[in-house]
Design goal:
Blueprint: H1 10-18, H2 23-61, E1 65-67, E2 85-92, E3 112-118, E4 125-129, E5 135-137, E6 143-145, H3 148-166, E7 172-177, H4 179-187, E8 191-195, E9 199-201, E10 204-206, E11 209-213, H5 215-223, H6 232-250, H7 253-256, H8 259-269, E12 273-276, H9 281-290, E13 299-303, E14 306-311, E15 317-321, H10 323-335
Parallel strand pairs: 1-12, 2-7, 4-13
Antiparallel strand pairs: 2-3, 3-4, 5-6, 7-12, 8-11, 9-10, 14-15
Helix pairs in contact: 1-2, 2-8, 4-5, 4-8, 5-6
Amino acid sequence: MNSSENNPLSIFDELEVAEEAPGPVKKKRRWLRNTIIIILVVLVALAGVVGWYLLKLNKSFNQIELIDNPFPTSENRVADVEGPRNILLLGSDTRGEIGDDIDDISGQRSDTIMVAHIPANSKSVQIMSIMRDNWVELPNGQEAKINAALAVGGVPMLVESVEGLIQDQIDHVVVIDFTGFEGLTDALGGVTLNNPIAFSDRGADFAEGKITLNGEDALKFVRARYAFSDGDYSRVRNQQLYMKAVLNELMSKETLTNPMRLQDAVSALAPFVTADAGFTSSYLAGEALELRDVRGKDVTFFTSPTNGTGTSADGQSIVVPDWEAWERLAERFKNDTVRDWNPDTRM
């Protein structure tokens, strides 16, 4: 057996011997040796840069605060990246910066409730908004708006309430303070979306058509509610438009080929995010690998089925769920066919 097969460095010994050869052969061997050395140096340098970047990205991600026991049972639920999974996304406009004790979230209400469903084939993502005023029966038997579950029983009760609606397991929980959207938007260089209705809110004017939002205006855009006659319906629509625009930016060639831009986005948002213990950087890396072919066009948003607004027995203004449509939608969650759900026909 050739000794070079057992000793990778022996190639340089052979090249040194070859350098004793006369004329062109000696120059050719020297050029080959120098080329190999240069390639190795470049690879080592690149490895160092990549390692530094991943370390910095992981350090930024580690700023995320953890939710203790966010699930209604003590069972350790870890999403199977090879099967369908559901991530509960909660947005808060009231907590302030998530530097406070996470236990403080009990007693407050979530302003935004979304469920991100990732099918087993990882070729798309469906994100469903659940309007916060949906009138439901909470796990404790109390009838209330669904976001009251957070105030009554904390994250576990809200998780259990949503699981009751979709008839499927929630695998991860992520709470985002709206204030983080400001830094995220600026880190991405602004986000562009198509605004269907011109409106003004909190001193900002948003024209109809294509607009580009900076961080400050993005925060106003997702918070706006009283500027619309249908209130929360338009607010949810605007939040979906913004999220879609952010995803388009994150999945764009400009971001994917610019590691520092992605690092800046993570650093800007991380201090305003709280998640369950299983929502780690390694978990996200696995998801990113699974979803590597997904682009903005493969992410769809819809709102859970409702029958408009109404008034509860105690006089509260509520959103009335369409329970018949909910039964069909829950079947799609259980059967991993949410991608085929048509919100217009509710089938």
